[in-house]
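Q: What changes when TNX is included in the input?
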Amino acid sequence: MSAYPAETPSPTRATVPFSVIPKPAEVNLSGGTFPLTERTQVLVNPADPELLAIGQYLADHLRPATGYPFPVQAATGALPEGSILLTLSDSDPSLGEEGYELAITPNGVRLSAPHPAGLFWGVQTIRQLLPPSIESSAPQDGPWTLPTGSIRDWPRFAWRGMMLDVSRHFFGPQVIKHLIDLLAYYKMNRLHLHLSDDQGWRIMIHSWPDLARIGGSTQVGGGPGGYYSQEEYADIVAYAQNRYITVVPEIDMPGHTNAALASYAELNCDGVARPLYTGTEVGFSSLCLDKEITYRFVDDVVREIAARTPGPYFHIGGDEAMATPQSDYIAFIERVQGIVQSYGKQMIGWEEIGQAKLLPTSIVQLWHSAVAREAVRQGARVIMSPATRAYLDMKYTPETPLGLHWAGYIEVKDAYDWDPATLVEGIGESDILGVEAPLWTETIQTVADMEWMAFPRLIGIAEIGWSPAVGRDWEEYHLRLGRHSPRLAAMGVNFYRSPQVPWE
Ligand code: TNX
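A: The predicted holo structure follows.
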């Protein structure tokens, strides 16, 4: 199906040499092929367990569809005919923390990078250069060829993320791991988990166990809810870490706290526990900011979660504190910032925290206004999540059965066709840490719903975060995207077949 009126000139498939997303920074194809065969080996330096793990990950992803063994072997200097070599190399430090270089000849593949993360992202490129059926979990017919040539590639932004709201509707560890695999495929490196809100508290805190037991017992619509044990959370974090993805935990405060206020009466100013809440209104709850116990609560929660979080970030929410007077709000954020810092983490908050006095290491997440500029003025950096472009819970069109539309309708083109550095006056490239696409789940109940709202818009956000601004263009992108339908289908992803995209 093509969305093009016949008279619209547009690039054709023939002019898109390959369909890698995000588009690599530099590509030179030479017109030949390298075939995978039953003799192809994956070679790594076996003394480095991290490289061995990346080699195994590549082999694990090539075996099911091809049926070939892909042994992971010790690299011994010269590249033996017909193999894939993964190697660390500091000969091109300009590739940075996450960049890589891929050289493919008819005789072999050499993937090199200054750091392991670059090799891992290069492996995703190799997967995407192969035919879509490589993603199948059952044997398929080849031929399994890679195009010859060279790719030098590195990300534009350090932060390329997705947020999932597991509070409004709870999603268990298996779903989160599946999502992590999909993020990795598109070179996204942050998963922000919105772990608490009015409707649910989703992680066990041993010093305050009723947060999870009571606060986690329901969700929007009154279903059973759920929560992660600390072991489950740590397991998710480790799974992500093995895929070069940093988990960012969020505990939203001082508003969006009804689940906590329902769990412990003493967190309320009047000492009376609130009833559990399963609706979708926002802005009605607040921690009691005059009570010392509130700060003991915050300290305990931050300490327990920080201890299970190797990544450097802790997100404190801070949005829509409509039930908190502004001066109290500011004092609260500043005090919480000190608590987060005392546990060795960098504080992140939604744009509203820009009203408080921020440490230069603190990070602000823009969502719908220019108040983030206040944070930029103080030297803080910005994660761009503009609701009108990056919110995966917005409907695609008025006909979309799921989602909200307070920020507008976001078709696939709207989600792709914008630039973080030119969207908000006063917030430029050097102020921006990167991009993140939030999926709020008031209306999202199943994995199929989640995938359908995220895909394919999330793929566009991934490209915005990774690919150079120059050369990024919807007309070309949407053809590459169209070629991802068999890949997404092979990975079992339920995605929105937008009429804007010429799906294969
Ligand atoms: C606003 S975005 C919220 C969330 C809602 C979302 C729905 C933000 C920081 N707060 O509480 O879930 O809108 O789109």
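Observations recorded in class: The longest strand covers residues 26-35.
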